[in-house]
Design brief:
The complex is a heterodimer of chains A (98) and B (192).
Chain A lengths: L1 E4 L3 E4 L4 E5 L12 H9 L7 E7 L7 E7 L5 E6 L17
Antiparallel strand pairs in A: 1-2, 3-4, 4-5, 5-6
Chain B lengths: L14 E3 L8 E5 L4 E7 L4 H12 L7 E3 L3 E7 L2 E6 L4 H8 L5 E5 L4 E7 L3 H5 L17 E6 L2 E9 L2 E7 H15 L4 E3 L1
Parallel strand pairs in B: 2-12
Antiparallel strand pairs in B: 1-12, 2-8, 3-6, 3-7, 4-5, 5-6, 8-11, 9-10, 10-11
The chains are: A mainly beta (98), B alpha+beta (192).
The complex binds zinc ion.
Zinc ion binds next to loops of chain A.
Chain lengths: 98, 192
């Protein structure tokens, strides 16, 4: 699997570290909204298809990256710098509980 | 300035090694520049840092990097640069030229070891370590690359068509040197 870093170009996946689900929105540190914290810590969309992810090019330029990866094919359709990234969940799944 | 001891000193054996009967494929040496300095620009200050590098060293950084024998500079991450000089005073000069509002200057002269690999098989040997494209088209002269061999982080600058300068953490340098010598055996190598 290759990830095309916006700075370094195409690199082997072994140079990157997975930083987690890119759909999560961390509540404000002082927030006492337990549903929001529960959603942040536990709820995952787990899609079969395109998935928003955060990766770091830890074995390269060390940039944090916002990646869209297809969980069925590993095809990567988008890589941009994560700086300024605002996470967004699918409206249909937002806040839903299993 | 404190006297610098090379971590390669106990293992650097000048002469020809490996299968050199049909010629030497690569030449390995330690560059030991007087200064190795890292600069990082705050957001929006990249041009100001590039201008400061130009003012202090005379090196222009339009296309990723430049190397002229005495001095070298290249970008290794967004808004981050490595600058080298044979002289030892580079860090002081850059610190004066880059204000704290513009960015940071970190003297790594004692923290990195610069290993030069040159010769017709230089790209071939390095390709055994690093999963990056060493062709001249993808990796032009002067450009720098940040990559890793297992846990040994490396910043690599192509300083000539068949010459690469590899910057590794000083504490990894001897281990990397051993591996580099082993990888060079099949093409024949000379240590200078
Ligand atoms: Zn990168």
């Amino acid at each position: 699997m290759l990830i095309t870093c916006p700075y370094c170009g195409p690199r082997d996946v072994s140079e990157f570290t997975y930083q987690g689900d890119g759909n999560r929105e961390r509540p404000a540190p002082a927030s006492q909204n337990l549903d929001a914290w529960n959603e942040y810590v536990y709820d995952r969309l787990n899609p079969a298809g395109d998935h928003n992810e955060v990766w770091q090019h830890s074995g390269g330029c060390r940039s944090h990256l916002k990646v869209v990866r297809n969980t069925l094919t590993h095809e990567i359709s988008s890589v941009v710098f994560a700086r300024g990234h605002v996470p967004h969940r699918s409206p249909t799944k937002r806040g839903s509980k299993a | 300035m404190a006297e610098r001891l090379s971590p390669l000193e106990p293992v650097l054996r000048p002469g020809s090694h490996g299968q050199f009967e049909d010629g030497v494929g690569v030449v390995l040496s330690e560059v030991a520049p007087g200064s190795i300095v890292q600069l990082a620009a705050w957001p929006g200050q990249e041009k100001a840092v590039i201008a400061a590098i130009k003012k202090v060293t005379g090196l222009a950084l339009p296309d990723g990097g430049v190397a002229n024998g005495q001095k070298a500079a290249f970008g290794f991450a967004p808004a981050k640069f490595m600058v080298m000089d044979e002289a030892e005073s580079l860090s002081e000069a850059l610190t004066k030229a880059v204000s704290p509002e513009t960015g940071t200057v970190t003297d790594l002269s004692h923290g990195r070891t610069a290993i030069r690999i040159s010769g017709p098989k230089a790209g071939w040997v390095l390709a055994k370590f690093f999963a990056i494209d060493f062709s001249l088209v993808a990796f032009p002269i002067g450009a720098g690359r940040s990559t890793v061999h297992h846990d040994i982080f490396a910043q690599i600058q192509r300083s000539a068509v068949d010459q690469f300068d590899v910057y590794v953490f000083r504490s990894f340098a001897r281990s990397f040197w051993h591996a580099l010598c082993r990888a060079s055996e099949e093409v024949g190598y000379e240590v200078r």
